[in-house]
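Structure tokens please, single chain.
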Amino acid sequence: MAETGRIRVAKDKAQLVKDLTSSDGGTGPFQTFADVIVFAAALGAKHKKRVPLGEISKREPSPIPQEQFIVRGYDTVISLLAVTETQDIKVLSLNEDNNNEKRNYIFEEYVNGGLEILQQELRGAVDYSERLLLVLNSQRFENELGEEEFDLSKFI
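Here you go.
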């Protein structure tokens, strides 16, 4: 299989990505770097937070081969984010050389945005798994509580 590219992580977020994995004896809630990165991209996309990478991590995690994302089926997330961001289905075309780079670039910026959010949410946490559950629960019930709390039309 030909190399299709690598997904890079900002140097200032590399330690967080490592801390969120359970590999190498870690206690993080995710099994692989790819799992952390896709979660962060989804979080960044949900909050419409796209942040340029700046300096790239060259050590753990070094740029991750895109094959790791393809094997897990995460390439769909990369493609969906690219189409959503560009509003152009042609970004999925394999005929143009730079489309893969474009998709990866958009994905990496959403990852970086999501990792910034995670840095804020996980600051001071001892157990990342527990804190992530709290974050996810608050997101889940945010809309329901928000509408209930401010909907005064029931009283009219």
